[in-house]
Amino acid sequence: MFNKGANMSKILKQAQQMKDNMQKAQDELKDMRIEVLSSDEMIEIILDGNKNTISLKIDDSLLSEEKDLIEDILISAMNKANKEADLKIKEKMSEATGGMMPNIPGF
Questions:
Q1: What are the DSSP calls for the chain, one per residue?
Q2: pTM of the model
Q3: 100, 88, 33, 105: CA torsion to nearest 10
Q4: How many degrees, rounded to 5, is the angle at CA 41 between CA 36 and CA 44?
Q5: Chain mean pLDDT for the chain
C-alpha cells in the first residue's frame, strides 16, 4: 500500500536539512550583534548571538553617581540585553527549524 522506505527517506532528508539549517543558524549567531541602551541611555551593551558581552560603554556622567545607582542601572541594562538576545535567538532558531521546534532547550 504505502512505500515506507520512500517516506522514511523523505523524513531523513528533512531531518538532515533541519540539522544543516540549525548549524547555519548557530554559526550566524556568533556574528550577530545585539545592541541595547539602558532606559536612561547612559549604558550601552553589545552582545553576540551566544549572549557573550562584546562591548560595554558607560556614559562619563554616570560615573559621578552613587555606586548603588550605577550598579542598579547596569543590572537593568544587562537584563534588558539578555531578554533582547533571547528573543533574537528564538527567532533565528525558529527560522532554522521552520517553526517546528520553537522552544529548543538552551536557545
A1: ---HHHHHHHHHHHHHHHHHHHHHHHHHHHH-EEEEE-TTS-EEEEEETT--EEEEEE-GGGGGS-HHHHHHHHHHHHHHHHHHHHHHHHHHHHHHTTTS-TT-TT-
A2: 0.71
A3: -60
A4: 40
A5: 85
